[in-house]
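In the laboratory, one determines a bound structure by crystallizing the protein with its ligand and collecting diffraction data. In a computational setting the workflow is compressed into a single prediction: the sequence and the ligand go in, and a structural description comes out. We illustrate the idea with 3-phosphoglyceric acid.
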Amino acid sequence: MQEKVLIATEKPFAESARNSMVKMFEEAGLKPVVLEKYKDPKDLLSAFSDVAAAVVRSDNVTKEVLEAGKSLKLVVRAGAGYDNIDCASAKARKVIVENTPGQNSNAVAELAFGLMIMIARGKYSGKSGTELRGKSLGVHALGNIGKIVASLGKAFGMDVCAFDPFVDQCVFDDCCATRVKTIEDLYSTSDYISLHIPKTPQTVKSINYDLLSKMKKGGTLVNTARAEVIHEEDLLRIMAERQDIKYASDIAPTNAAAFLEKFADRVYFTPKKMGAQTAEANTNAGIAAARQIIAFLKEGKVLNQVNP
Ligand code: 3PG
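The predicted complex, in structure-token form:
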């Protein structure tokens, strides 16, 4: 009997990317099932019930979803961050979780500059704005996205520095970013700070009052990472205290209304998380995910596992 593979995306891939994945699964002798734009999490539960593997994006793969997946062996997050998947429950059920690192990084990095320019140009209001050239850019974490942001910053003529205690000096050298010793140094010297830390128990709410209060005069914080890494109440507080600080984020904070009401000119939020929402990123991440599923179901190969 053909094994079923689910493509479950509340926020669908570009049609061409999804069609390529469907074709790859069919050619590998697997039966693809597509669930897109679902509104009710129960739909995800029932879709998982009889599949051997699943591709997801930011979809919440909870303990309940995993329990519903009676035949489930593998979940591939077509993307980088896997904070939406209960990896511990998956491990307990012997379900492998993989991601597709680097595949959508360029799209996210480009959006970071889109947000910087949006703020620099007064949200395209027609008012006179400023340019990125000659400004300082602080990259908070030099993973796959941060490295591209640093390189693009150079191309824009920015002075690029970065903070990342987890990577070697050669990574800073490769993307021509000056290494700063402390996170406080990064925030106090950068006209633009671009956030690229993952969401983990250690990073949630880690961008707090102490750190935000170090921001350079007129500084802009750009968040294409996760909304949850920001301490929202602290950000509201510092933005009220300092009229010079600006914030742009790919996906709104929980209390978006309060930010927009108080600081309309100084904040911008995308209506839906859209950093990786390009045809190219969808194709790269989707095809990588499909390849990983086929490699596992047909050859037993495990690639990019994140819950060893
Ligand atoms: C990621 O972690 O890969 C990005 O945040 C993209 O998420 P998305 O697939 O939900 O757009």
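The chain has a mean pLDDT of 98. Keep in mind that any predicted model is a hypothesis to be tested, not a measurement.
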